């Protein structure tokens, strides 16, 4: 995202001022709304239209960077511009940063009203927004409507359900995935650990070892060790530790810390001391 320079800020102010002059305010007994007088735009040549569209995109960028997200979203309804994928992406990202669910819903509604074909990238942005704002009902509805889903789509839904402790739904999606990557396994396993289901976490870790051995990384392994410590079961923890030794993985601090926690909780002080000396 480009930094806000004085020139960009002044251009944004000028553009917003011109918009206000171009709107006529009307009211009825039921509602008030801004009605855009677009006669002038209809007579602009293509070069001028491109310039107007660039000003619109710049204004959205500047408003979002200034944390004026509501004003940025309202621009969608105050111009006759057909927003690009970049504009929608910028607005959705701003809604995610500020956990602005209602504004995000308005952006999503605008994509439909403007007949914008989102594609998987924008759909995934919307999924992420709904999941991070805690509205899995909206996320699931969008997920079900998507004509094409990629790994990011599935992973976003799994993480969303797992974080809220809805592990049955997360596991159902995990089992239905046409393919999985490292992130998929980590999300499901860590979800079990976070919500006090360590045995289920270790069961899934074993499945991963059988089918996706090369994909284990520091996050997977630290989750498996945390699950062993939560039971607590020294034997299971040593199985994971043995796997680390056999595969000769480069252990990072997060894994060493998980090993230390495991041996400490299981009362194996000699092993804990040995791990501490290696840190």
Short synopsis of the structure:
Helices cover about 70% and strands about 5% of the residues. With about 280 residues, the chain is mostly helical. Strand 1 (about 25) and strand 2 form a beta hairpin.
Describe this protein with a few key phrases.
279 residues; 16 helices; elongated
DSSP E strands, number: 2
What's the shape? elongated
The parts where pLDDT drops under 50 for at least 5 residues are 24-49
Radius of gyration: 25 Å
- Measured by DSSP, the beta-strand proportion falls in under 5%
Largest sheet entry? 2 strands, antiparallel
Strand order of the largest sheet: 1-2
Number of helices: 16
Distance between the termini: 39 Å
SSE arrangement, N to C: HEEHHHHHHHHHHHHHHH
Write down the overall mean pLDDT. 86
Helical proportion?
Answer: over 70%
Question: What can you tell me about this protein's structure?
Answer:
The model is unreliable at 24-49 (pLDDT under 50). Strand 1 and strand 2 form a beta hairpin. With 279 residues, the protein is mainly alpha-helical. Strands 1-2 form a two-stranded antiparallel ribbon. The longest helix has 20 residues, at 46-65. The chain is 71% helix and 4% strand.
Topology of this protein?
Elements: H1 6-22, E1 23-27, E2 32-36, H2 39-42, H3 46-65, H4 69-76, H5 85-97, H6 101-113, H7 119-132, H8 136-145, H9 151-163, H10 167-176, H11 182-194, H12 198-211, H13 218-230, H14 234-247, H15 253-265, H16 269-278
Antiparallel strand pairs: 1-2
Helix pairs in contact: 1-3, 3-4, 3-5, 4-6, 5-6, 5-7, 7-8, 7-9, 8-9, 9-10, 9-11, 10-11, 11-12, 11-13, 12-13, 13-14, 13-15, 15-16
């Amino acid at each position: 995202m480009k930094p806000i320079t004085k020139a960009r800020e002044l251009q944004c102010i000028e553009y917003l001022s011109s918009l206000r002059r171009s709107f006529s305010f009307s009211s009825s007994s039921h509602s008030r709304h801004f009605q855009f007088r677009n006669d002038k735009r209809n007579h602009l040549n293509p070069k001028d239209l491109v310039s107007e569209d660039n000003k619109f995109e710049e204004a959205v960028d500047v408003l979002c960077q200034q944390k004026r997200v509501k004003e940025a979203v309202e621009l969608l309804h105050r111009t006759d511009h057909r927003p690009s994928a970049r504009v929608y992406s910028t607005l959705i990202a701003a809604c995610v940063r500020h956990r602005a669910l209602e504004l995000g819903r308005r952006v999503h509604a605008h994509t439909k009203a403007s007949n914008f074909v989102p594609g998987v990238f924008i759909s995934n942005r919307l999924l992420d927004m709904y999941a991070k704002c805690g509205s899995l009902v909206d996320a699931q509805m969008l997920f079900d409507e998507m004509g094409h889903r990629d790994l990011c789509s599935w992973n976003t839904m799994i993480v969303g359900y797992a974080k809220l402790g809805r592990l049955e739904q997360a596991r159902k999606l995990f089992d239905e995935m046409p393919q999985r990557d490292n992130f998929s396994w980590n999300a499901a396993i860590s979800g079990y650990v976070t919500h006090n289901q360590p045995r289920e976490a270790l069961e899934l870790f074993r499945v991963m070892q059988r089918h996706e051995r090369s994909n284990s990384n520091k996050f997977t392994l630290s989750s498996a060790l945390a699950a062993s410590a939560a039971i607590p079961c020294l034997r299971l923890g040593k199985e994971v530790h043995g796997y680390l030794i056999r595969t000769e993985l480069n252990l990072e601090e997060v894994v060493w810390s998980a090993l230390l926690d495991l041996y400490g909780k299981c009362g194996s002080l000699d092993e804990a001391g040995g791990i501490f000396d290696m840190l």
